[in-house]
Design a protein that fits this description.
This protein is mostly beta strands and about 475 residues long. About 15% of the residues lie in helices and about 40% in strands.
C-alpha cells in the first residue's frame, strides 16, 4: 500500500495521471474498507469514484507541479489513508494541501500547496535526501500554542539511519539548490519507532521514542532505549529515559493512554520470531515509568506465539492487553492451521489483571466472534476439514475428560455462490442462520440441534447450556476493519 499512487510522465499525460489518481483512490478505499482482508470477489466491488469538484483544482495543481516520473506514496504507518491531506498548517484559518510522493529519484518528499488568488499553488517543499521511505507522518500541536508541528519519521536509505524530524510552519523558508522554498527541521534525531500521546494527563502530548544502538548483528545485538520528550520553546526536552527489553527483533507499536481507572501509561509490542511477539505495559508514576507487565518473578515473560494488537476493546477509554493462547485439544496442528483465542485483560491498578472479554478473530475475513459466558472453559476451535467455505468449527470441550462434540460452524460464502449453497442446505434440512454480508461474502452460522446421545449426563447438560447461547453468539459477530 505504501506506493499507491500515480506516475507523472510530463505535461502530455494529464489524462493518464487523473486515471491513476482515481485508481489509487479506489485501492486506498478498498484497503481501508477491508483492512487488507481476503474478499470473495473484490473486482466485482471496484468502482471508479468521481473526483468532487472542490478537489479537481487540487488534482490539477498536483499534475502541474510534481516532478516528472513522480508518484504518490503513503507512509508505512498511516492513519489518514490518503496521499493528499487538507490541513491548516500555518494557522491562517485556511487549509493547505500537503502531498506525499516519491520524486523522480525515488526519494520521498512532501509538497505543500496554498490556496491563493483562487488557485492552488506550490508553497513549500519538505525533503530528506538520505531517506528512502516515510515511516510516520503526523500533524500535532505539541505545545498547545495554536500552531501545528509536523512530525516525520524517515526511513534511511542504505547505511543511513532512520531519522525522526520535527518541522514548524512558523520557520522562515529558505531556497534549495533548485530555487524552491523549503523549511528545515527544528529537531532531528535517530529513532526506531515513535508515537505521541498525553502520558502525564496535562493536556499536552509527549513524544515517546525508541532508539537502538549496535544494529549490526554480526558485531552485537541491538540495545534498545526508550526516551520521553516534551516539546517546549520550539525544541525537544528529554524528561525520562530507560533501557528496555533487548531480546526482540523489532518494536512494532507504542500505545499511550489510560491503562487502568486511575493510571496512564505505555504499552509496547514487538516481534520476537517468525510469528511470536512480546508485550510490555508500563505505568507512569511520579515522573517515571514502572513495568507492570510482564512479571518475570512470577514466570510471566510476556511472549506469545502470534502477533498481538492491544487496544481499548470495550470502548471504556482504557487500553487492554491481548493475551493469546492456542485453542485446546489440538497440540499437533501446524501453525498455519492453529486457532488462537484472545483474552483481553485490563490492569486493575494494583497487582493483577481482570478479563474483559474472550474472543476469536479470523484476520483473513476480519471477523471477530465474542465468546459467550456459557462457553467459557468448555469449548475449543479448529479447522472444519472438508467443509466448503467454513471459517472455523466450534466444539464442546471437556478439559478433564477430553470429551468433544461438534457444536457449530461459521461460514463465509461468496455472494455469487450463496443462492446455490442456501438451496443445497435447505434440501438437506441443515440448520443455519444468515448473519450479515461483508466484502463480497455472506457470513452464516450453523448450530447442531441437540446434544449428542452418547455423552455423559454432565456433558449433555453443559452442551445444552452452550446451545442456549446461540442467539447471543450470533449477534456478537462483528467485522473488524483494522
Amino acid at each position: 500500500m505504501a506506493n499507491a499512487g500515480y506516475t507523472n510522465a510530463g505535461g502530455g499525460h494529464g489524462k493518464q495521471i487523473r486515471l491513476s489518481i482515481m485508481l489509487s483512490a479506489v485501492l486506498t478505499l478498498l484497503f481501508l474498507a477491508t483492512g487488507c482482508r481476503y474478499t470473495a470477489a473484490p473486482a466485482d466491488l471496484l468502482q471508479k469514484p468521481a473526483i468532487a469538484p472542490d478537489k479537481q483544482a487540487i488534482v490539477q495543481a498536483i499534475e502541474k507541479s510534481l516532478p516528472s516520473y513522480s508518484k504518490l506514496t503513503l507512509p508505512v504507518r498511516e492513519e489518514h489513508m490518503g496521499a493528499i491531506r487538507l490541513i491548516d498548517v500555518d494557522g491562517d484559518g485556511t487549509n493547505e494541501a500537503i502531498v506525499s510522493y516519491y520524486n523522480e529519484y525515488s526519494t520521498p518528499e512532501l509538497m505543500v500547496f496554498k490556496y491563493t488568488a483562487s488557485a492552488w499553488k506550490p508553497w513549500l517543499l519538505i525533503q530528506q535526501p538520505l531517506a528512502r521511505q516515510i515511516e510516520w507522518l503526523k500533524f500535532e500541536d505539541l505545545d498547545k500554542d495554536g500552531q501545528k508541528e509536523l512530525i516525520i519519521g524517515w526511513i534511511g536509505g542504505f547505511d543511513s539511519p532512520n531519522v525522526l524530524e520535527i518541522y514548524s510552519f512558523q520557520s522562515k523558508p529558505i531556497r534549495n539548490e533548485s530555487g524552491k522554498l523549503t523549511i528545515q527541521p527544528i529537531e532531528s534525531l535517530p529513532y526506531t519507532y515513535a508515537e505521541s500521546g498525553d502520558l502525564d494527563n496535562d493536556g499536552r502530548s509527549e513524544l515517546v521514542v525508541i532508539s537502538e544502538t549496535g544494529t549490526n548483528q554480526e558485531i552485537a545485538l541491538p540495545e534498545y532505549q526508550l526516551t520521553i520528550y516534551k516539546w517546549t520553546n520550539r525544541k525537544l526536552k528529554e524528561v525520562y529515559g530507560e533501557s528496555i527489553n533487548n531480546g526482540v527483533n523489532a518494536y512494532d507499536r507504542i500505545l499511550i493512554g489510560r491503562i487502568s481507572e486511575q493510571h496512564r501509561g505505555i504499552i509496547l509490542e514487538a516481534s520476537t520470531g517468525a510469528h511470536s511477539s512480546y508485550t510490555a505495559m508500563y505505568v507512569w508514576e511520579k515522573g517515571k515509568l514502572r513495568l507492570v507487565y510482564p512479571n518475570e518473578s512470577e514466570g510471566i515473560e510476556g511472549i506469545v506465539g502470534k502477533p498481538t494488537y492491544s487496544q481499548d476493546i470495550n470502548g471504556d477509554g482504557i487500553l487492554e492487553l491481548q493475551w493469546s493462547r492456542e485453542a485446546p485439544g489440538y497440540p499437533d496442528v501446524a501453525y498455519a492451521y492453529s486457532k488462537w483465542v484472545n483474552d483481553w485483560m485490563q490492569w486493575d491498578g494494583h497487582d493483577g489483571f481482570k478479563k474483559i472479554t474472550e474472543e476469536f478473530t479470523d484476520y483473513r475475513y476480519g471477523i471477530q466472534m465474542r465468546i459467550p459466558n456459557q462457553w467459557l472453559g468448555r469449548y475449543t476451535l479448529h479447522n472444519a476439514d472438508n467443509e466448503l467455505y467454513a471459517v472455523v468449527a466450534i466444539d464442546y470441550w471437556n478439559e478433564e475428560t477430553k470429551a468433544t462434540a461438534k457444536l457449530a460452524t461459521l461460514y463465509a460464502v461468496p455472494q455469487k455462490q450463496w443462492g446455490s449453497v442456501e438451496a443445497g442446505w435447505r434440501s438437506e434440512s441443515k440448520s443455519f442462520r444468515q448473519v450479515f454480508t461483508d466484502s463480497g461474502n455472506v457470513f452464516v452460522t450453523s448450530f447442531v440441534k441437540e446434544a449428542p446421545a452418547d455423552g455423559s449426563d454432565a456433558d449433555r447438560k453443559a452442551f445444552r447450556e452452550m446451545l442456549e447461547a446461540e442467539a447471543e453468539f450470533t449477534s456478537s459477530l462483528t467485522i473488524r476493519n483494522d
